[in-house]
Predict the structure of Mitochondrial carrier domain-containing protein.
Amino acid sequence: MPSLYPGADILQNTFGSSFQPKNNGATPLQARTDLYPAYSMVDDAKSKAHKLSAEAAREFDAASKMTQEKTGHIELYSNQYFAACAFGGLLACGITHTAVTPLDLVKTRRQIDSKLYKGNFQAWGHILRHEGVRGIFTGWSPTFFGYMAQGSMKYGFYEYFKKMYSDLAGPEIAHKYKTGLYLSASASAEFLADLALCPLEAIKVRMQGSIPSPYKGTLDGFRQITAKEGWAGLYKGLYPLWGRQIPYTMMKFASFETIVEMIYDRLPGHKSDYSKAAQTGVSFVAGYAAGILCAIVSHPADVMVSKLNAYRKPGETMGAVTSRIYKDIGFKGLWNGLPVRIVMIGTLTGLQWMIYDYFKVFMGFPTTGGAAPPAEKPAQHT
């Protein structure tokens, strides 16, 4: 870029020998870069970070291209597309829920017994001292397998029901009532997904809520519960699980789609103008915001699920145990552990949407967003 000021050679040619620039080195106020090695360190770090980012992007693109060549072109809304979305949901939910197991452990124990720990950090310190590092991740295996199954069905069936309900309604009505479409599709998907989650959720809550854990692992939990209570013992928390998960998922998907639309409406240009990396960044932000709303909406039912799996007596009806628990904890007790759950759900929901959309980009699919407006009918000329 050319300088705005004339150089020394131009000034000398203009004014002749009367102009003799002085070259005394640095001025008294000029910074000496050799005295500030941090500047060069920061520049080096930035340069290395850019190189690593560019290299990672190239590796991602190469792997994506190779995968798409092997799978062939997958048409949107085909059976292969829905299966791929199910696998993306499996990755997104299985990884994230397992990663926040320490948060879930403390939340569950504080919901079951609010006097057990004074705070979250005190709880982790106590668990670490008495149960070791392994104790911090109590319940990770049923969490991993349960949310892999639930995530695959939730995301796969959501894409399926969203397309099916949209086709039944027609493009104009589907766009006009798109929020209702998101709510209906997500509720239908979660209803089915909880059938897979419920048995593993029961094992997880009992492992985390009892000190020490009554089971050595997921399979041991299956064996002991079915031996004592039959298969019904694994599903005794199904109704409160539906009560927690269906409103949670309805809020998760509908608010996410709405927030994504709001973000792009306020950004210059269109969604297609932004890179895939930027679009997945939007997915994380929208997912985190949606997760906060999810946590608030579903928290009372989450408390009931935790207590019900731990305290329901054999043969006790759902109404009786729910009434007994509410009598013990009251309305205030239904909100016990909400701050930690907001952090947990907000983080994992944001990461879930980011992972899910990264997978869709990897497979050559568009990132998740709101429904496109219906195509305008061509004007008829008379």
The two ends are 58 Å apart (CA to CA). Confidence is low (pLDDT under 50) at residues 370-382. The first helix runs from residue 8 to 15.
